[in-house]
Specification:
Layout: H1 32-48, E1 55-59, H2 66-74, E2 79-86, H3 92-100, H4 104-121, H5 124-146, E3 150-155, H6 161-168, E4 173-179, H7 201-209, E5 213-224, E6 234-242, E7 245-252
Parallel strand pairs: 1-2, 1-4, 2-3, 4-5
Antiparallel strand pairs: 5-7, 6-7
Helix pairs in contact: 1-2, 4-5
Length: 255
């Protein structure tokens, strides 16, 4: 896949899962460069239709909220608010830890945790993590001077419209980026369906999202290549593949 926006293969090691940002055990981290590319493509589609301001970014299957947190560091100026939810309440503490790193207080706490681990164990990985935390803090100190990003986290079943509406509390979402459950490490809770039918969780999630979107909102779905990402209430903006993933960008259909 040719990158159109994240064209520079920069060093993302400071954002590595498990270094400063907390990893989700048993779950591979979403690639930072790919997340950045997806976000910028979503914003470009919005801008082409006249929506040029900072966005409300939402992930209804956020897991540990790793990619949301890294996107904030990379695209702070383009994000007004980050909202995350997941049905698995056991994973929400990890999401909360990562989203807290978008504040100086949270990053300072994480830096102190890493320093304590370095003092106790003296591992080279802790030295690297502490250096990364220092660089991230320097970046964040400049970002928060510009403005803060509002952050919200709640538990909800992404396939239930009422649950999403209650958690979002009438907030209209501009961009959705969701790495939907698939593969051995993650699955939709309560179902094994992979087809894009009215009975599938993917279809139900897209249906549940429609009331919180406007006509220029963009929904980006990352999935394995075996899933059909379609819904009659959306039109496809684009689709591309990278490795074992496909990414499909959708927009609510008019009329």
């Amino acid at each position: 896949m040719p990158y159109r926006f994240a064209v520079e293969d920069r060093d993302y090691s400071d954002f590595a899962s498990g270094r400063v940002f907390v990893g989700q055990p048993g779950h591979p981290a979403f690639p930072v460069r790919l997340a950045s590319e997806i976000f910028q493509r979503c914003m470009a589609h919005r801008a082409a239709q006249g929506a040029t301001g900072p966005c409300v970014l939402y992930d209804p299957v956020c897991g540990g909220a790793y990619h949301l947190s890294t996107l904030a560091f990379l695209h702070w100026h383009a994000i007004r608010a980050i909202i995350a939810s997941d049905i698995d309440e056991e994973i929400l503490p990890i999401a909360r830890q990562n989203l807290t790193l978008l504040t100086l207080e949270g990053l300072d706490r994480r830096q102190a945790e890493i320093a304590a681990m370095l003092a106790a164990y003296g591992k080279a990985s802790h030295v690297e993590a502490l250096a990364s935390a220092g660089r991230l803090r320097q970046v964040l100190a400049g970002l928060v001077k510009m403005r803060h990003i509002d952050v919200r986290l709640f538990a909800a079943d992404a396939t239930r419209a009422q649950a999403l509406a209650e958690g979002l509390a009438e907030t209209e979402v501009d961009v959705v980026i969701a790495d939907i459950p698939y593969g051995w490490h993650s699955s939709w809770q309560g179902t094994g369906s992979r087809s894009a039918t009215a009975a599938s969780p993917l279809w139900q999630m897209l249906q549940a999202l429609r009331p919180v979107l406007d006509l220029v909102s963009v929904v980006a779905i990352a999935a394995d290549k075996g899933q059909r990402v379609v819904h009659e209430g959306y039109r496809r903006l684009e689709r591309f593949q990278i490795g074992k993933r496909q990414v499909v960008l959708l927009q609510p259909a008019r009329g």
